[in-house]
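Subject: Sanity check before I submit

Could someone independently write out the structure tokens for this chain? I want to compare against mine line by line before I put it in a report. The sequence has 467 residues.
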Amino acid sequence: MIAHPSFAVIGHPNEGKSSVVATLVENDRIRISPTPGETVESTSYPVILDGETVISFVDTPGFQNPLQTLGWMRKYQGPSRDMLAAFLREFGDDPGMTHECELLRPVAAGSGVIYVVDASRPLRRVDRAEMEILRLTGRPRMAIINCKTGEEGFLEEWKEEFRKHFNMVRTFNAVRATFAERMRLLESLRSIDQDWEQALTRVQEAFVRDWDRRLRDCAALACRFLSEVLAMSETTSLSEGIDRNAVEQRLTMRLEARIRKAESELHRAVRAHFRHNVFQADLPEQSVLRQDLFSRATWRVLGLTRTQLAFTAAAAGGAAGAMVDMATAGHSLGLFAVLGGAVGGLAALVKGEDLVNERLLGQRLGSQGLQVGPVKTVQWVYVLLDRFLLYFWHAINWAHARPADHVVQDPEKGGKLGLTSAWSREARKLCADFYTARTEGREEKSAELEVRLEQFLDEELHRLSSS
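---
Independent answer below. Compare away.
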């Protein structure tokens, strides 16, 4: 018998069984094919949390001969508890019943049943036969109506029939299910059999603890990323006769590359926390995450509005207050005034007036050295946070059973396309204070503020993941 709760995911070919399994166990390597009959063997996929298997889901082949199977079961005369074992003995070597033996084998071993159908098609005779087979097994069972196409013309017909055969019925879109929806499905499983309730309660609690840990880890990753990037600079020595502009451009490009690499590593870590192996982030065509970090478009649509930035920077004081004009002013010292029609790169940002050069990139000039960075505008911290939050949103809503044409919609936003503009004044001030302390090199103060920022981001990630 199985030492942990296990459910065999059963149904007709091409109804979405593999998609349901992939989403429930967060495994995007499970083969999902539009061709019926691709799954020919039962495969168990465990969910392992803290090194322990807490539950498993078995991907099974589709029914091959349900009418013949049901006919045999109705004629069976032995004890009901021995029926499945007898069926497997009789038909184990029959090529025409291979699929039935494969899908019933985990049920005979003690698995519960999750029966998956597609509500976009009508009920058929063979469907009723499959439901009756599963009822006769006597195992705890749930029916899932997988709304995979968005067409649910036969939904009520399926529900009415399911009530005759199953302990629980749920609609579930395997390619769009959020964590909260997966938890609601687990809650339903907990109720299908009293003998399973205690074990499935532990499973649900383990899922919630694991999710909380992932969100805490992501908040910590974001804070470490900010702490690193806000203080980044590039320095070199100067010698007589060297072209200062060429050196400046080279340093700027090096700084830009380091920042992009740090953001890429952050994204890779976020993907790993949510068990994405083949996640490609095919973002909506209009998504700002398709833009370069330093493009004019990115800075125009992310971060705070001019009014918000002015109030926040003034409240924060220090470096933040001093540099507010760099992202809010409409005159020639505005952040992108020197860009003209150009898009992309700190290299573009530092061309033009010396005052813009010095104030935006914090350059320190001397007879023997040149430093570029850190980036000297408080808007920087909000742009970085917005890009992290948008990427996090796509990662947690990127279903592991996602088909090629599925697009994750952006979350609800405030006045801009990012999320920070919808935060409270207190939250925005916390970010500005952290920015100021970090760019001014006040290590003790920035460490203190980082703890508070991490706690706030943890709460924000929980809010995003539950919406």
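---
OP: Matches mine. For the report I'm noting this point. Residues 33 and 330 are 54 Å apart (CA to CA).
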